[in-house]
Amino acid sequence: MNSINLEDTVAAVLEKYPAGVYLAAVSGGADSTAMLAALAAIKERKDFDLHCIHIEHGIRPADESQGDAAFVRSLCEKLNVPCRVVSIAPGRIAADAKERGIGIEAAARRCRRRAWFREAARLGERTEAGGEVRARVLTAHTADDMRETVLMRFLRGAGPSGLAAMPVSRGRILRPLISLSRRDVLNYLGEKNILWREDSTNADIRFLRNRVRRCLIPLLEESFPSWRGGITALAQTQSLAAAFIQREAALRIQWQPAPCSLCTGTETFFAQPPIIREEALFQAIDRLLPSARAHHTIKRKNIRRFCKGGVTAINLGPLRLTKNARQITISLFSDPRSRIRL
Questions:
Q1: What would the mean pLDDT of 124-146 be, rounded to a whole number?
Q2: Opening angle at CA 23, ends 163 and 104, nearest 5
Q3: Strand order in the sheet with 319-323
Q4: Exposed/middle/buried for residue 73 (C-beta within 10 Å: 0-12, 13-18, 19+)
Q5: pLDDT per residue as tens digits for the range 180-239
C-alpha cells in the first residue's frame, strides 16, 4: 500500500465518523506516528481541528520516556499540530495495578484512557456557532493489533465479546488504521522518510502481548501461514454472536437499580440459557463498574460457576454476587473510587 492509499483510508474513516475535533493519541511508535502524519496531511485538504496527546507513563527509564515525549513534541511542531504531554508520576501506575489486582499493562491503559477522555472533554467544551464541538479520540490500532488481541483473549478463555473484532468506532474512540496492517504503516513511514521511536518494553516477554507477538505468531507463520485470515474470520463471526447475545440478554433479563446494587428475579434469570445468564451478569457489572470487565478484574469462570446455580454467593473482586429464592443481587463493595451508572 502506498502513502496515498493509507491517507485515503484514514480520510474515508473521518468522513464516515465526522467530528469537530480529533485528538490523536500518539506514543511515538510507528503506528501512532504514521497516523499523526497522515492526519496532518489530510488536514491540509479537509476542515477539522487536530490535536495530539502523549502520555508519559513513568514506567520506563526517565531518559527513554522523556525522549519519547520530546520526539512527539518535535513531530507536532513540524506538523503544526497542538500537543499536550501528560506525565504520570513514577510508581503511580505500579501502585494502581497492585491496589486493583491487575497487570501493569492494564493499569497503564486505564490511566491512559482517563487522560485521553479528560482532554477530549476539555477540547469539546469549546463552542462554534453556539453548538458543542464533538471531540473524538483517535488511536492507532491496526489489524495486527486486533489479531494479537484476539489471540491473547483466546488464551485467557474469553467469551464472544472478548473474541469479537475491534470496532472502528466505540464511544469517543475512533480507530482509523484498523483495516491496515503493520506492514502498510511501515511502508508509509518509509515512503515519507519519517522516523519513529521504539519502546524497549516491546522486547520484554514478561508481557503477554509480547510473548504472543514474538513467540506464538512466528510459530503460526511457520506452520499455519493462513492464520491471519482465520483469526479475522473468527473475530468477525464472534462480533455477530456477541451482538445477538447482548441484545437477547438485555431483553430477557431486566436489572432494577438499588443503592450501589442491581437486582433481578431469580426464576426469570435461571429460566434463560447459560450464555444469556452470563452476558446479563456482565451487563450488570458494566453498569456498576464500567472498567471491571475491560481490565480483567472479573473472571468468567466465577461468573459461570454462579450461573450453574450451585452457589448462593460469590465475590468478584470489587463486586459481590448473591442469590436467594426471590432475587439475584450484584453489589459494590464499599469503595470511594467506584462509580455507579444507573
A1: 79
A2: 50
A3: 256-258, 261-265, 327-332, 319-323, 313-316
A4: middle
A5: 999 999 999 999 999 999 988 888 888 889 999 999 999 999 999 999 999 999 999 999
The rounded distance, in Å, linking the Cα atoms of 180 and 1 is: 9
What sign does the dihedral 37-38-39-41 (CA atoms) show? positive
Q: Which residue has the higher pLDDT, 107 or 197?
A: 197
What are the distances in angstroms from CA 253 to CA 231, 271, 292, 298, 316?
32, 10, 20, 20, 20
The grid cell for 312 is 448462593
Residue 341: name the closest of 271, 283, 300, 281 by CA. 283
For the chain, the structural domain boundaries read 3-140+176-203, 142-171+204-246, 253-332
What is the average pLDDT value for the chain, to the nearest integer?
A: 89
Q: Which of 321, 314, 325 is nearest to 267 (CA)?
A: 325
Element (H, E) at 151: helix 143-155
Could you give the C-alpha distances from 50 to 23, 42, 164, 194, 241, in angstroms and in order? Answer: 6, 10, 30, 19, 36
3-state SS of the chain: helix, strand, coil percent to 5? Answer: 55, 15, 30
Place of cell 450484584: 330
**Closest C-alpha among 82, 76, 63 to residue 28:** 76
Lowest mean pLDDT among 139-143, 217-221, 268-272, 300-304: 300-304
pLDDT tens digits, one per residue of 22-77: 999 999 999 999 999 999 999 988 888 999 999 998 888 888 989 999 999 999 99
Level-2 CATH architecture, domain 253-332: 2-Layer Sandwich (3.30)
Pick left, alpha or beta for residue 61 (phi over 0 → left; psi -120 to 50 → alpha; otherwise beta): beta
- Return phi, psi of residue 310, to 5°: -85, -10
DSSP H or E stretch at residue 319: strand 319-323
- Prediction pTM value: 0.86
* Highest CATH level, class, for 3-140+176-203: alpha beta
